[in-house]
Amino acid sequence: MNIVILAAGQGKRMRSDLPKVLHPLAGKPLLRHVIDCARSLSPQRLIVVHGHGGDTVRQAIDAALPGNDIGWALQSPQLGTGHAVMQAAPLLDPTVPTLVLYGDVPLTTRDTLVRLIEAAGPDRLALLTVNLDDPTGYGRIVRHEGRIVRIVEHKDADEPTRGIREVNTGIMVAPTAALERWLAGLSDDNAQKEYYLTDIVAMAVRDGVAVASAQPAAAWETLGVNSKLQLAELERIHQRNVAERLLDEGVTLADPARLDVRGTLACGRDVAIDVNCVFEGEVTLADGVQVGANCVIRNARIDAGAQILPFTHIEDASVGAGARIGPYARLRPGTELGADTHVGNFVEMKNTKMAAGSKANHLAYVGDATVGQRVNIGAGTITCNYDGVNKHRTVIEDDAFIGSDSQLVAPVTVGRGATLGAGTTLTRDAPPDRLTVSRSKQHTVESWKRPQKAAKAAK
Ligand code: UD1
Ligand code: MG
């Protein structure tokens, strides 16, 4: 199988400097959805026809998929879908059929394409068609005694032909040697002065090549993106599909319409997700995890029974079993929390390992730290990890107690079982099992009196 993805169109109606096929759906460029689906069919050759936006499209894909084996064909100027496939022709393996996909049609499923490929077999032309209530703008499938005889573009169609509701989705499979021959015979003698790929249908009929068709399981599989409105509509369809799959798997969603998954979300049993959560990259929620409202979780593993309370932000981090995080916690990259840890409101952690049973419940910054087990980090604690040039580590050993409002000026170690008095500015290591406190002694000024308001001078 050769697969050719047409992606040279400009997408004027997006009103954007970014080439249309690079606009993201579920956090991933439209074209990557098509490439990923194409890849799942293990084609011998995968070719993208690009044009508008020059090399931007190619560079973006190469950056996202380094070392890929995609063939690129430049189409400049863009003279129609037939002309686009012509540019890819020299890169095709003539001994296997060619599947044509559109780079701006992101939601086609593998199953539907497999059915189309089966309908084509080794030597038939096969079209993916769909019946629409409003077929305006699409190429119409003209049948004679049930058999497809040609496609007529909307702009070239007369009134009776415009009445046909079966339309061309643009996705098709063709025997490659014949395809190349047909492409060479295309003309641009039509309403749009373009070389129409759709004209190969009548040529196949003329040559006695059977024309088959298949239909997608759902009409949205064939919807394309031409505007921000259509992009937003497809995003909602995609998110609805993701939500339905999660519900099927037994995940509880407070509202399937208020969940966004931009990547992969793997869930165990009895996972519950409240409204307005966003999951990005690869996220795993183990059995019994609960995620509160308005959380953003990216590239993270949350172990069994952990609770992520509302408005928590987690990125490139892992959370141990039974932990309780948030509300309003922020776990930044490199944070690894052990079992039964607690991280409470307005606590920021970065590049920090915190072992089982430790807590930082209120208003703290813990960065570049290694925290042992059963440690209590008091409210307002700050690891001063940055001296303006370099970052340094703070080590807090098992069972230490960090009094509220302490600053730990790294590099520094708090020994096992040590206690820091509240307000300590720790600049040297605190020995194990002792109280270390740096604040000045409290004293009371006996002679002090509160100032009195001066009496106003009489006028
Ligand atoms: C095309 C089909 C029409 C079908 C419709 C489905 C033709 C002649 N018509 O029409 O039968 O109903 O799609 O949406 O094929 N492209 C290029 N280079 C070009 C022109 C287009 O790469 O020179 C790409 C576009 O980026 C897009 C795809 O081909 O991904 C389809 O192009 P578009 O202009 O949308 O075709 P339609 O006129 O809508
Ligand atoms: Mg179109």
Task: List the defining traits of the structure above.
459 residues; 21-stranded parallel beta sheet; 8 helices; binds uridine-diphosphate-N-acetylglucosamine
Helix and strand layout, with pairings?
Blueprint: E1 2-7, E2 24-25, E3 28-29, H1 30-39, E4 45-50, H2 56-64, E5 71-74, H3 81-88, E6 98-102, H4 110-120, E7 125-131, E8 140-144, E9 147-152, H5 159-162, E10 166-174, H6 176-184, H7 200-206, E11 211-214, H8 228-248, E12 252-253, E13 259-267, E14 272-273, E15 277-285, E16 290-291, E17 296-302, E18 307-308, E19 313-319, E20 324-325, E21 330-331, E22 335-337, E23 342-350, E24 353-354, E25 359-367, E26 369-371, E27 376-377, E28 382-384, E29 394-396, E30 401-402, E31 407-409, E32 412-414, E33 419-420, E34 425-426, E35 435-436
Parallel strand pairs: 1-4, 1-6, 4-5, 7-11, 12-14, 13-15, 14-16, 15-17, 16-18, 17-19, 18-20, 19-21, 19-22, 20-23, 21-23, 22-24, 23-25, 24-26, 25-27, 26-29, 27-30, 28-31, 29-32, 30-33, 31-34, 33-35
Antiparallel strand pairs: 2-3, 6-10, 7-10, 8-9
This protein binds uridine-diphosphate-N-acetylglucosamine (UD1) and magnesium ion (MG).
What does it look like?
- By secondary structure, the chain is α/β, with parallel strands linked by helices.
- 17% of the residues lie in helices and 32% in strands.
- The protein has eight helices and 35 strands.
- The protein has a 21-stranded parallel beta sheet that branches. Strands 5-4-1-6-10-7-11 form a seven-stranded mixed beta sheet, sandwiched between helices. Strands 28-31-34 form a three-stranded parallel beta sheet, with no helix packed on it.
- The longest helix has 21 residues, at 228-248.
- The model has no long low-confidence stretch (mean pLDDT 97).
- Uridine-diphosphate-N-acetylglucosamine binds at residues 6-9, 49, 75, 78-81, 83-84, 102-104, 138-139, 151, 153, 167-170, 196-198, 224.
